[in-house]
Design a protein that fits this description.
Shape: elongated
Largest sheet: none
Strand content: under 5%
Distance between the termini: 45 Å
Order of helices and strands: HHHHH
Number of helices: 5
Number of strands: 0
Length: about 90
């Protein structure tokens, strides 16, 4: 293992995992205001909006939707029920 802790700290999962990496970008004031406006319309912070758009660009819309659906189903107890049905145990 290297001594470079900056590269060793990474998210455990590309979608919905621990967020330990930080990245910044430079943009115009107009771009920032437009981004914040779009985020607000979606009920998100600018950071959440940017992360969601990045995830869609990197992994595709279906992967992002599937990941969110699975996480929501786990919270509601539906994921284990659907796994049991698929396995023929329900």
């Amino acid at each position: 293992m290297s001594n470079n802790t900056e590269t060793e700290q990474f998210a455990r999962s590309p979608l919905g995992g621990k967020k330990s990496a930080v990245m910044s970008i430079r943009m115009t004031d107009e771009q920032k205001m437009d981004m914040e406006r779009q985020a607000h319309l979606c009920g998100m912070s600018a950071s959440e909006w940017a992360e969601k758009n990045l995830a869609v660009a990197l992994y595709g819309l279906e992967a992002v939707i599937d990941s969110e659906r699975m996480r929501t189903e786990m919270v509601c107890g539906l994921f284990t029920q659907s796994v049991a049905k698929v396995g023929g145990r329900a």
